[in-house]
Amino acid sequence: MSVELLDSDRFHGFRVRRQIAGETFQEYFPLKKNGKRLRGKNRAAVRRRADARDAELAGLQRAQREKASKQVQVVTKGRVRGILCRLKAEKSGSQTPVFQIGVMSQASGKIVNTTVSINRYGTAAAWRRAVEFFAYHKQLNKRSRAYKELLAAEPSPAQVKRLTGHGVKR
Fold it and tell me: What is the pLDDT of residues 25-68, one digit of tens each?
């Protein structure tokens, strides 16, 4: 809940504040009338109005988060928000190129991470595995446009080499 009681020389009342799609919604509900502080049922009425507005904003916030969680952001070919191409340091000290996936899972309700080795599977198969993991946790249908965009964003071996500095097999 984002209803906060503010009590200062300048303002006495409730503030409702929520972030929705990068925009801050902030409203004030004063607890003073004619210079006197409200008490009893008048104060409770103001609190109910503040809580009602907060509930309304919370619904908008949930809807926006739901919408954003289903979106896929393909920046450029080989660059998808949530799938990184990077070098992973192994225990032996060697570095392996991998696709690292980090996503807020709709399936489990928490953030999940994994890596897929490019050396082990090759660029194409590793990308397909990374996209399947991503799609499962974002609950994307394999027939959806977003899933097809993800598959099409597969980086070439040259792009992987440029991103990681290592040569890889196709």
Answer: 999 999 999 989 999 999 999 999 999 999 999 999 989 887 77
Closest CA to 74 of 148, 124, 142, 139: 148
Same domain (yes/no): 32, 65: yes
Give strand pairing partners of 88. 96
User: Are 55 and 81 part of one and the same domain?
Assistant: no
pTM of the model: 0.61
How does residue 146 score in pLDDT terms, banded at 50, 70 and 90? confident
- Domain boundary pick from 41, 70, 99: 70
Mean pLDDT score, 74-86:
75
What is the maximum alpha-carbon separation in the chain?
77
Distance separating alpha carbons of residues 128 and 34, to the nearest angstrom: 67
Element (H, E) at 99: strand 95-104
Q: Which domain holds residue 58?
A: 3-70
Handedness of CA 93, 99, 105, 111 (dihedral sign): positive
Is 137 found in the same domain as 79?
yes
Structural domain contains residue 8: yes
